[in-house]
Amino acid sequence: MKRGKKYRDTVKKYDPAATYGLDEGLALVKTMAFAKFDETVDLSVKLNLKKSQSVRDTVVLPNQFRGEKKILVFCKPEKEKEAQDAGATFVGADDLIEKVKGGWTDFDVAVATPDMMKDVGKLGMVLGRKGLMPNPKTGTVTFDLKGTLAELKKGRTEFRADKTGVVHLAVGKVSMEPKLLNENVKAVVAEIKRKRPVDAKGEFIRTVSVASTMGPGVWVSITEE
After folding, report:
1. Does 68 have pLDDT greater than 80?
2. pLDDT tens digits along 72-93
3. Rounded distance, CA 96 to CA 225, Å?
4. Alpha-carbon distance values, 30 to 38, 170, 181 (Å)
5. Is the dihedral of CA 31, 33, 37, 39 positive or negative?
6. Which long-range contacts (CB under 8 A, 24 or more apart) does 136-144 make?
7. pTM, 2 dp
8. Where is 166: in which H helix or E strand?
């Protein structure tokens, strides 16, 4: 893949093969961001997983960097007021299911009460592709709409290991204070460690890297405090 001049000039600022401390690595990422917009800082964590193992959960980042999430709630009429009072952007049942069937996905997260999942499950082709399908493992299939939406509004974000065993997650913006980015990275890594499968062998976290949207990846080490 041919890279632009700005990218090639940026790579000269560091050693791509070196592993840096987290503070130094994040400082490099901020220095090497060259886009005209406020680039996102992405975290990639390579895990030592067997094909039969998976890591998936949610985390509330201590320092938020995104605007208000648009939350859709699939529920029966008797739960609609609870969802609306909790701050849901869209609330409904069959009407919303039909709308999503038509390809509409103008929301950031979907929540469903368990009694709706028989019908919501049929939206797999639309929601599954976008990573929006409600799932009990991530707390988005629940009757506790008030508590769940409160957590989502605080910034609760899903993470999952892909087929290659890598967890990718946005952890901030280049414009953020280094201390805040540091705290977000450590919060995600700590949560990933807590989700280590009981039958996982050897070193669980193989590598950790951080990068801005347009910049190169920087290997970092996360030390326990």
Report:
1. no
2. 999 999 999 999 999 999 999 9
3. 47
4. 10, 14, 10
5. negative
6. 137/56, 137/57, 138/56, 138/57, 138/58, 139/58, 140/109, 140/110, 140/111, 140/112, 141/111, 141/112, 141/113, 141/114, 141/117, 142/111, 142/113, 142/114, 143/79, 143/113, 143/114
7. 0.72
8. strand 166-173
